[in-house]
């Protein structure tokens, strides 16, 4: 299967790979996995006191599409408020990366990673 | 469950693989095209269909994850085409760490020892999630079947680790 140029670009030059300090109260982590292919994705966000995502990092073990999807969402969420980030849909990711139907689950994984990170942030703040 | 019936085996997750293979060979011989050389077109066609059915059944029953997914689907819980994600932070964190450890093996000074250690770790995890499947997969209770489905989803990650490990083993042998 041929990857689109955008996927190849993200795989060759992944943006924002790494980890943020999980003990920082402003850092939240979203962990998701796709049983279909065994891919594992970790997305971390650092949220300012005003509720804006200042930084995002990811680590993904999976195929090119999964890596590209997570790399892309780290770019997209930066500068967004939590509510704006929550609006990112997997279909936006598929469209941007021109993912074929068999790789849609990779974009679902990335969307769910954002949701999981936001949920983690809210539960951390509630404590 | 039809696939088990084909081989005249009890519908049990802990299938006797030797017996399965033996029954497969018997069936395979019985429907071999040579035996149908002088028969009608209809009989030939049926023999071909039977051959492909027993091949499919064997492939599913031989593989622990496919066998479990098949049994779940026969019980009305089909997870084979699902796209939903797994959200179990503790389990996924462990998966992430295991993937990182796998990466380190490739640069280790003594990869063989580390591969062996990793293999035993995978075996333990495999056991943890498949130990109760035999009972769970024949349960009538949907909540028990859901627990089984969750175990099978996790087993798929364990099998992925196993695949990655053998890939690394192969690359180190080259």
Automatic annotation (TrEMBL), chain A:
<feature type="domain" description="NIF system FeS cluster assembly NifU N-terminal">
    <location>
        <begin position="2"/>
        <end position="126"/>
    </location>
</feature>
<dbReference type="InterPro" id="IPR002871">
    <property type="entry name" value="NIF_FeS_clus_asmbl_NifU_N"/>
</dbReference>
<comment type="function">
    <text>A scaffold on which IscS assembles Fe-S clusters. It is likely that Fe-S cluster coordination is flexible as the role of this complex is to build and then hand off Fe-S clusters.</text>
</comment>
<dbReference type="GO" id="GO:0005737">
    <property type="term" value="C:cytoplasm"/>
</dbReference>
<protein>
    <recommendedName>
        <fullName>Iron-sulfur cluster assembly scaffold protein IscU</fullName>
    </recommendedName>
</protein>
<dbReference type="GO" id="GO:0016226">
    <property type="term" value="P:iron-sulfur cluster assembly"/>
</dbReference>
<comment type="similarity">
    <text>Belongs to the NifU family.</text>
</comment>
<dbReference type="InterPro" id="IPR011339">
    <property type="entry name" value="ISCU"/>
</dbReference>
<dbReference type="GO" id="GO:0051536">
    <property type="term" value="F:iron-sulfur cluster binding"/>
</dbReference>
<dbReference type="GO" id="GO:0005506">
    <property type="term" value="F:iron ion binding"/>
</dbReference>
<dbReference type="Pfam" id="PF01592">
    <property type="entry name" value="NifU_N"/>
</dbReference>
From TrEMBL, chain B:
<dbReference type="InterPro" id="IPR004640">
    <property type="entry name" value="HscB"/>
</dbReference>
<dbReference type="InterPro" id="IPR036386">
    <property type="entry name" value="HscB_C_sf"/>
</dbReference>
<dbReference type="InterPro" id="IPR001623">
    <property type="entry name" value="DnaJ_domain"/>
</dbReference>
<dbReference type="GO" id="GO:0001671">
    <property type="term" value="F:ATPase activator activity"/>
</dbReference>
<keyword id="KW-0143">Chaperone</keyword>
<feature type="domain" description="J">
    <location>
        <begin position="2"/>
        <end position="74"/>
    </location>
</feature>
<dbReference type="Pfam" id="PF07743">
    <property type="entry name" value="HSCB_C"/>
</dbReference>
<dbReference type="GO" id="GO:1990230">
    <property type="term" value="C:iron-sulfur cluster transfer complex"/>
</dbReference>
<comment type="similarity">
    <text>Belongs to the HscB family.</text>
</comment>
<dbReference type="InterPro" id="IPR036869">
    <property type="entry name" value="J_dom_sf"/>
</dbReference>
<comment type="function">
    <text>Co-chaperone involved in the maturation of iron-sulfur cluster-containing proteins. Seems to help targeting proteins to be folded toward HscA.</text>
</comment>
<dbReference type="GO" id="GO:0044571">
    <property type="term" value="P:[2Fe-2S] cluster assembly"/>
</dbReference>
<dbReference type="GO" id="GO:0051259">
    <property type="term" value="P:protein complex oligomerization"/>
</dbReference>
<comment type="subunit">
    <text>Interacts with HscA and stimulates its ATPase activity.</text>
</comment>
<dbReference type="InterPro" id="IPR009073">
    <property type="entry name" value="HscB_oligo_C"/>
</dbReference>
<dbReference type="GO" id="GO:0051087">
    <property type="term" value="F:protein-folding chaperone binding"/>
</dbReference>
<dbReference type="GO" id="GO:0006457">
    <property type="term" value="P:protein folding"/>
</dbReference>
<protein>
    <recommendedName>
        <fullName>Co-chaperone protein HscB homolog</fullName>
    </recommendedName>
</protein>
């Amino acid at each position: 299967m041929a990857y689109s140029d955008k996927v190849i670009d993200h795989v060759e030059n992944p943006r924002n790979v790494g980890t943020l300090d999980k003990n920082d109260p402003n850092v939240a982590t979203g962990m998701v996995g796709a049983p279909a292919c065994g891919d594992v994705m970790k997305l971390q966000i650092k949220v300012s006191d005003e509720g804006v995502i200042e930084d995002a990092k990811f680590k993904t073990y999976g195929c090119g599409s999964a890596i590209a999807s997570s790399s892309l969402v780290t770019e997209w969420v930066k500068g967004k408020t939590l509510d704006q980030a929550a609006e990112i849909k997997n279909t936006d990711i598929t469209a941007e990366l021109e993912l074929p139907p068999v790789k849609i689950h990779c974009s679902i994984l990335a969307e769910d990673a954002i949701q999981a990170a936001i949920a983690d942030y809210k539960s951390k703040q509630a404590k | 469950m039809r696939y088990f019936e084909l081989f005249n085996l009890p519908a049990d997750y802990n299938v006797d693989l030797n017996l399965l293979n033996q029954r497969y060979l018997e069936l395979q011989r019985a429907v071999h095209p040579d035996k149908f050389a002088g028969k009608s077109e209809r009989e030939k066609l049926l023999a071909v269909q039977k051959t492909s059915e027993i091949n499919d059944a064997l492939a599913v029953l031989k593989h622990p994850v496919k066998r479990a997914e098949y049994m779940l689907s026969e019980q009305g819980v089909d997870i084979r085409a699902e796209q939903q994600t797994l959200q179990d932070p503790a389990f996924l964190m462990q998966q992430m760490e295991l993937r990182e450890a796998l990466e380190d093996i490739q640069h280790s000074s003594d990869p063989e020892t580390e591969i062996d250690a990793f293999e035993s770790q995978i075996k333990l995890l495999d056991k943890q999630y498949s130990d109760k499947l035999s009972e769970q997969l024949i349960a009538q209770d949907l909540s028990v079947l859901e627990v089984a489905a969750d175990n099978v989803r996790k087993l798929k990650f364990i099998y992925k680790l196993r695949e990655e490990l053998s890939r690394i083993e192969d690359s180190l042998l080259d």
